[in-house]
Amino acid sequence: MLVWGLFLALIVVFLALDLGVFNKEDHVIKTKEASIWTAVWVTVAFSFSGVIYWLFSSGIIENPTGLTPNDAVLKYITGYLIELSLSIDNVFVIAVIFSSFKIPAIYQHRVLFWGILGAIIFRALMILFGVALITRFDWIIYVFGVFLLYTAFKMLKGDEHDFDPKKSFVFRQIKKVYPITSQINGHDFFVKKMGLNAATPLFVALVIIELTDILFALDSIPAILAITADPFIVFSSNILAILGLRSMYFLISRMLQKFRYINYSLVIILAFVGLKMLFSHYIHPPEWVSLTVISVALLGGVLASLYIKDKNEIE
């Protein structure tokens, strides 16, 4: 429990520094700043693999799955890359939400900050629930596997991008239970209008981002659980990837059209981990195989996006 407490305290420190020091004043996050912060978060995440090795070699942390230090590091890095890669689709949806509600660029970081904070809480609960299910019911891994294959199929068809936040069920329900205004009052989530408190577009965008992240977690958490059921590795790799999502959003949201083949990378990753779950009781590939498949799929998507010209550009 001490290790968990220290890790959570570290996350709180990171978040406090983020909003209270480095982003105290609202400002537009430009590409250069987003690139620097993305590099910082990726460095922190990969450096944490050294902590994972130390924890599992020293015996300080509980090791319910009996992992060796080397296996623990490989599983952590693989889980981190899975979450990071699946976050790319999350970036697309966040961009659509901000555009739909006309959220000014200067306030987008603040909305994402509170969205990430909520995501950490919800994902912690979902991870604990998912680990408990796999530990108690072996057959649930087949359910997760089929679900991931279905998600990969839907992503291949492209149905998940037909999304209009203002027509969503969540937006309609918010309008029913709380007054909504189209007025943006600085970075405030609520404003007083005609004697009544009303939610601003920033708050509506925050709620929809929060709930869509939960939907994305239904893909990413089973995917990581296909790699390992160790709760600390699943949680730490997931959360460190989420912390870097804000800077990643500002870095790649402006380049979404360039990375048009990334979705195929995600299809391969989801299909691979889905099949790995379905055959988990029969086939046990080395950890480096999973890491290689995920890395090659991501790299292939990026290179294809950069070097294969779009038909519209050719014409």
TrEMBL record:
Q: Identify its membrane topology class.
A: Multi-pass membrane protein
What is the species listed in this Swiss-Prot or TrEMBL entry? Cellulophaga tyrosinoxydans
Tell me which domain of life the UniProt entry assigns to the organism this sequence originates from.
Answer: Bacteria
Q: Which family does it belong to?
A: Belongs to the TerC family.
The GO cellular component terms are: membrane
What keywords would UniProt list here?
Membrane, Transmembrane, Transmembrane helix
This chain's protein is named Tellurite resistance protein TerC
Primary location: membrane
One Pfam family from the record: TerC
